[in-house]
Request: fold
Amino acid sequence: MKPKILLISGSLRATSSTQQVLTHVEKTLSPMAEPVVYEGLGTLPHFDDSPNVSQEVTALRTAIARADGVLICTPEYAFGVPGSLKNAIDWTVSSGELVEKPLALITAASQGESCHAALQKIFRAISAKTNENTTLLIQFIRSKIDSDGYIKDQNTIDSIQVLCNHFVSAIIEHVQAKAEVE
Reply:
């Protein structure tokens, strides 16, 4: 089984460190999974808990529902979760696409601890399936990327590989367990 993994960047900048890490993750996952990049974060309307949702919100929810797992790579803004990423997560709370969904988190920032901790708390609150093997905090990210946008730090490369291996295994176990129940 080659699981489908939705990749979401918490940054809207195409040239951000987060996007460069996500590009590396996509290449790392490709031999063992089907990575699909979600590019609609910046088009989502502000969350308002309306029962009438926009086409962009429906597209986000559908992309998450169709994926076997979701991997989020995000920066930290002002010691917190980027607003556009939190907005996207908020659109899934009442509809439940992330409930029991295998989820991996990479926080790539200068510091990152506050955002990383806040997102883990949010994911526990909405019952997404994450664990210590599917979360990674990469601090001082800019010093670990070369001028061409590639990760140059071998420990970071190795840590991403380990996370991807664990995440794909967790997804496969989840899908198999779900199939046994059905």
About this structure: The chain has a mean pLDDT of 96. The domain at 4-181 is CATH 3.40.50.360 (Rossmann fold). Residues 154-181 form the longest helix (28 residues). The chain has one domain: 4-181.
